Structure formats: C-alpha cells, structure tokens
UniProtKB/TrEMBL annotation:
<dbReference type="InterPro" id="IPR025293">
    <property type="entry name" value="YfiR/HmsC-like"/>
</dbReference>
<dbReference type="Pfam" id="PF13689">
    <property type="entry name" value="DUF4154"/>
</dbReference>
<protein>
    <submittedName>
        <fullName>YfiR family protein</fullName>
    </submittedName>
</protein>
Length: 166
C-alpha cells in the first residue's frame, strides 16, 4: 500500500522528499551561484551541464518543490560537454587539470565553472564546493572567474569569504 502511495505522488514531491540535507545544500548553493551570474547575450535560463561523475547529479537535475534557475543537462564526457550548449559546467570527479583543459576547449565562450572535488580551488574552476559532514561551503578562484566571460554578483563573492554560509 505504501509503495502504491509513493508511486502515485507527483515526481517532484517524491524526489524532494528523498534528498538528504547535503543534497539540498549543494542544490541551493549551485542554484544561488547560477542565479546571480550574468552571461552576455543570454536570454532565458542557462544550461548547466552536469558531469555524470558527480555525486549530486540527482539533486542538481531533479524537479523539486523549488524551480531551478538553470536547465540541467547530464553529460558523460568531454565530447558531450562540447556538443551540448553549456553555459556552465558542474564537474564531479574530474581533476582540476582536466577542468582547466576542458574549459580551454570552449574557445573563450562565456562559461561558469563549478567543481565538486577541487577543495584547494587553485586551478580549474571558478567556484569550488567544500563538502563535509556538517555543511556545504564554497570557495572562489577570482583569477578563473575573471577570465570566464561571465559576471557574478559581488554579494556571492562575499559569501565565499564568510565561513558561516551554508
């Protein structure tokens, strides 16, 4: 009976109910970063290309009670990323070197880069999530961000300096 009830629920509600607190935090932070980013000549939602290697694919791509400020596109490799119309890339297990190499293949197109596994944030992505058991934070590589071709609201950058944000 419970299975029938669960299957009859709208998909968004079912998905929203199974996301962990960390999943919701990652979704919230990534959504916030994207929503405060401006791409030149873009009208409408940007495409966030999410590598399938990410631990948070479901959290970042599922329909839930809150609308996403981006259109999720799941990609499996560099070829998928280059063929998709990506405005932002969300890296999973890809190394910082790989992040840098792939971003250079986009030939100076405006591109927001967010990494899940790049805690030092010294190269590769502009925004790097710092995920531990208690909270999710992020850091910013201003050098990468300044070369990205996108503009991010300064308030987001200030949040990266605040150790209390989640």
């Amino acid at each position: 009976m419970a299975l029938v009830l669960l299957l009859s629920m709208p998909c968004g509600l079912a998905i929203g109910g199974i996301l962990s607190e960390t999943d919701r935090s990652v979704r919230s932070i990534v959504s916030g970063i994207v929503s405060y980013t401006h791409w030149p000549a873009l009208s409408g939602k940007p495409n966030l290309c999410i590598f399938a290697s990410s631990h948070y694919v479901e959290a970042l791509s599922s329909n839930g009670p809150d609308a996403l400020p981006y259109t999720p596109v799941i990609i499996h490799d560099d070829r998928d990323a280059l063929n998709a119309e990506c405005h932002a890339l969300y890296f999973g297990n890809e190394s910082p070197t790989h992040q840098l190499e792939l971003s250079q293949a986009f030939h100076a197109r405006p591109l927001l880069l967010i990494a899940e596994h790049n805690p030092q944030c010294l190269t590769g992505s502009a925004f790097c999530l710092i995920i531990d058991s208690a909270r999710v934070r992020f850091s910013v590589n201003l050098d990468v961000l300044s070369r990205s071709g996108v503009r991010v609201n300064p308030d987001v950058l200030m949040l990266a300096r605040n150790k209390k944000h989640e």
